[in-house]
């Protein structure tokens, strides 16, 4: 067994940003924490795509980039959970950050294709959450579990559900039971190979790495709920077929970013209703967290 690299290595927000190639000055024009986070993600994926081992990059150096991003993600999640704290990356440059370096061999690093897919998303395309009420209907089709689930079945209050982001309305909808979810290829591309790994913790770690990037709501889930999510995602029978990025982009030859986003949402959807032009009636849609106004923290 390979030795695990040291965890919780102290660093600072500014050093983490620098590891991603992002200068503090470049955040000056950001209005709030979400705008800063968007800039952080852009810098991260730009660096990740350039330095990935699949493209000849050094695996150890790439893991340091991953570790820096994980530290910033934790800081972002804390800022979202406690908006009254007024946390901003730009106002907290000297603040310490606990960086947890990804463990394991180079083969555990997700493929370059995963990062290319994830880089396309300005906000998380999917949300996992406890149902806020018992009013949303399961919209699933196409999975073994869904064949036993009527579209008239209500998702019970507090039961885990998964929804997709509608690019036109800006809300999450099309909710399905967690067990009925067809895991999209952009998610399973970042997971360990189930034929080689049966460690639930490894899948949980991989999924957490998608938090606030591909998957929204993970920071609000309990440990047992994360395990439930991991169990669903590690079963290849639940995986949706792969749709190549180039095939999705060709669907939007004109119309600008909005048309491209709509085409991407439609193309990445599965037979369970992801990517429709509007959230279905009774879907109990919810908006992604964006555009919050956060008072800057004192220097």
Automatic annotation (TrEMBL):
Biased segments, Low complexity type: 262-293
- Region annotated Disordered sits at 262-299
GO molecular function terms here? DNA binding; zinc ion binding
SMART domains per record: zf-PARP (SM01336)
- Name the chain's protein: J domain-containing protein
Question: What's any one GO cellular component for it?
Answer: nucleus
Q: Which domain of life is it from?
A: Eukaryota
Q: Which residues form the J domain?
A: 23-77
Membrane-traversing stretches: none
UniProt keyword terms in alphabetical order: Metal-binding, Nucleus, Zinc, Zinc-finger
Predominant location category? nucleus
Pfam families given in the database record: DnaJ (PF00226)
User: Domain named PARP-type: which ranges?
Assistant: 126-205
Q: Which PROSITE patterns match?
A: DNAJ_2, ZF_PARP_2
User: What subcellular compartments does it reside in?
Assistant: Nucleus
């Amino acid at each position: 067994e390979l030795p695990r690299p040291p965890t919780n290595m102290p660093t600072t927000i500014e050093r983490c940003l620098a590891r991603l190639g992002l200068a503090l000055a470049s955040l000056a024009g950001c209005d709030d924490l979400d705008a800063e986070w968007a800039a952080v993600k852009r810098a991260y994926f730009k660096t990740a795509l350039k330095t990935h081992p699949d493209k000849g990059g050094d695996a150890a150096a790439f893991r340091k980039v991953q570790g820096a991003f994980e530290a910033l993600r934790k800081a972002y999640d804390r800022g979202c959970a406690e908006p009254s704290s007024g946390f901003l990356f730009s106002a907290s440059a000297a603040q310490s950050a606990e960086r947890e370096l990804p463990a394991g061999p180079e083969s555990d690093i997700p493929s370059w294709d995963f990062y290319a897919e994830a880089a396309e998303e300005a906000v998380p395309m999917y949300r996992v959450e406890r149902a806020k009420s018992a009013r949303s209907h399961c919209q699933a089709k196409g999975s073994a579990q869904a064949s036993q689930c009527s579209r008239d079945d209500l998702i019970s209050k507090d039961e885990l559900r998964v929804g997709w982001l509608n690019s036109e309305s800006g809300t999450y909808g099309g909710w399905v039971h967690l067990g009925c979810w067809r895991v999209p290829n952009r998610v399973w591309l970042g997971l360990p190979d189930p034929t080689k790994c049966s460690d639930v913790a490894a899948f949980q770690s991989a999924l957490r790495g998608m938090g606030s990037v591909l998957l929204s709501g993970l920071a609000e889930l309990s440990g047992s709920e994360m395990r439930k999510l991991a169990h669903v995602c590690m079963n290849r029978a639940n995986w949706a077929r792969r749709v190549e990025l180039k095939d999705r982009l060709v669907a939007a030859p004109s119309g600008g970013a909005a048309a491209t986003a709509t085409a991407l949402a439609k193309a990445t959807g599965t037979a369970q209703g992801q990517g429709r032009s509007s959230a279905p009636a009774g879907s109990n849609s919810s908006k992604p967290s964006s555009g919050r106004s956060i008072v800057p923290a004192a220097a």
